[in-house]
Amino acid sequence: MALYEHVFLARQDVSSQQVEALVEQYKGVIEANGGKVGRVEHWGLKSLTYRINKNRKAHYALMDIDAPSDALKEMERQMRFNEDILRFMTVSVEAHEEGPSAMLQKRERDDRPRGGDRDRGPRRPREDRE
After folding, report:
1. d(CA 8, CA 88)
2. Which residue in 10, 74, 114, 129 has the most C-beta neighbors within 10 A?
3. Rounded-to-integer distance, Cα 37 and Cα 123, Å
């Protein structure tokens, strides 16, 4: 069986629970066709670079898949018919990454306090600064 990373974008007006239900639905399709799904990550609601079907934001989700190509084709076929899925992309990989993906690492890095927020003390009046 081949290894894949699959990312899909769901409409902005679906809830997080509905996105999780979509993941479970497509996970069932993969498992019914002899594959298995490893890591599943929800990247949350993010802004799109450009509008897709009148949506400015989308829910992003990543799935690590180990399945035959027929299982993947069936999942993608079903995604084409689902109006809640805006876009999807599947990439074949040599090995799945361990730990969180780059998107989750970026989110953790962004949550840290920034160095520019430190207290620099009181400011002097402008005429005293020469």
Report:
1. 4
2. 10
3. 57
